[in-house]
Amino acid sequence: MGKDNIQDQTIPENPDIEKVDRRQFIKNTGIAGGVAGLGALFAGRKDLSAETAKKTAVKTHDRMPIEVSADYKQMDQRKTVFTRARLEPAMMKHGRKFFGPKTPTDKPGWTQIDIALADAGWSVHNAFSSKSAAGVPNTDAYAWEGPVNSLKYKFKDKKDAAQIIKRAAKLFGASLVGVAPYESRWVYDPIFDMTKNKTYTDKDFPFKPKSVIVMAIEMEYSNFTTAPALIASAGASTIYSQMAVSGYQVATFIRQLGYKAFGAGNDVALSIPFAVSAGLGEMGRNGLLVTYEYGPRVRLCKVFTELELEIDKPKTFGVVDFCKSCKRCAEQCPSKAIPMDDEPTFEGKTISNNKGVKKWFIDPEKCFKFWGENLGDCGTCISSCPYNKPDFWHHKMITAMTSLPGSSLHATMTQMDKMFGYGNTYDEKAIKNWWKND
Ligand code: SF4
Ligand code: SF4
Predict the structure, then answer these.
(1) Which long-range contacts (CB under 8 A, 24 or more apart) does 137-140 make?
(2) What pLDDT is recorded for position 377?
(3) Which site in 46, 232, 338, 431 is 20 to 30 Å from 286, CA atoms measured?
(4) pTM for the full model?
(5) CA–CA gap between residue 282 and residue 297 (Å, rounded)
(6) Pocket lining: 367 vs ligand 1, CB cutoff 6 Å
(7) For residue range 133-167, what is the model confidence (pLDDT) as tens digits?
């Protein structure tokens, strides 16, 4: 991959965002009414702690808060873009650029140190869960079988079991953890091992899973301020390595307690529906899980087990409604892979879109083509999302507000997000700062 390709690539220009005085901004832009409305919302709520704000915004549901149509079928893993990138000539040329060796450039963010950083991030994943990120199942850390203690630990009940497994999962690296019921509809059919050209179904599992432990692992915010530079890619690859460690340790812990279990990364099943079912977040316009705590700036892994655990309820906090008017990720996406439509639909545009679930379907072909040009994954749909901010100064307001009907406040908050300089993409200063900061 040559230098010219990188320099020629289409990256949306970084909006020229001035440092804005917030009080002056509110006065000048006529959104004072919106802010006053928010003030009224919080009148008498001086006690509005982070926990109170979360309680105000988050709603629990007895059923999955995603509409699934009657003609929904399990996803054939051979249709995923990673498998197609290995098997389909038209996609393989992009796959060679993405998976192949990279030639350093002089462009900040794509130099030898940036490439080395992203590669080092992958190293534990590559050594320990080879190709699971591309969907290869049943490898190394994510092997379906492993030694199970013949001494079975007796939990008091399902609640006790869930508490103990979740506590251990946090120790092993999970930022968030939830438990979903096992549902075969989210498992690939067939599951496909591209390295052996072999297919499986969940009947090939060595046991019938009853619970799925879903872990979301936070990726570092500062890395994603550089997206789509390879420092952002390193933020993701580092967590792919952590996923293998966390998935393996949680599965090993359960096996040591006398129950069968195995971990999975991107392989075996769709992670997002299990994560939504486990109450970890909602699916956003960008096709990613949007969590309350970190927005879409997480990676997911799951552990399937025969152990019966107390199941978590799905939770929403207004993401889908907010996405209808936000569209920041779609505007900033370098490949225009994210739709601008106001409403989600049941059908996508490529064979890599599995129809039958109401959502915004991103175009994985356009996205993956950009990854090839970019020499690594991109992350712009994470960095541009207002929910991704750790120091989201209006986080309390926005999360409480998104539980209210009406899009005018949502639009106001999106504008404020832009004006305050969040959601920048391709910021050379962020790249330089990343290497300077300890
Ligand atoms: S990762 Fe893909 S979908 Fe997301 S912004 Fe980049 S090109 Fe677009
Ligand atoms: S950037 Fe906006 S539209 Fe995109 S996922 Fe985040 S909240 Fe939704």
Answers:
(1) 137/191, 137/192, 137/193, 137/200, 137/264, 137/267, 137/268, 138/193, 138/200, 138/267, 139/267, 140/244
(2) 94
(3) 431
(4) 0.88
(5) 13
(6) yes
(7) 889 999 999 999 999 999 999 999 999 999 999 99
Which region, left, alpha or beta, applies to residue 258 given φ > 0 means left and ψ of -120 to 50 means alpha? left
For residues 217 and 301, the answer to whether their CB atoms sit within 8 Å is yes
Mutation to probe ligand 2, out of 224, 282, 283, 286 (largest number of atoms < 8 A from CB): 286
Q: Whose CA is nearest to atom 6 of ligand 2?
A: 385
- Given a cut of 60, whether residue 26 has pLDDT beyond it is no
| 287 within ligand 2 shell (Cβ under 6 A) | no
Position with higher pLDDT, 179 vs 96: 179
Distance 89 CA to ligand 2 centre (A): 33
**Cβ(378) to ligand 1 under 6 A?**
yes
The SS3 call for residue 120 is helix
Torsion over CA: 84, 86, 89, 92 (sign): positive
Query: pLDDT exceeding 90 applies to what percent of the chain?
Result: 73
Task: At 70, list the tokens.
Answer: 């009657």
pLDDT at position 14: 37
- Residues 396-438 pLDDT 10s: 565 556 555 555 555 666 665 655 555 456 788 999 999 998 7
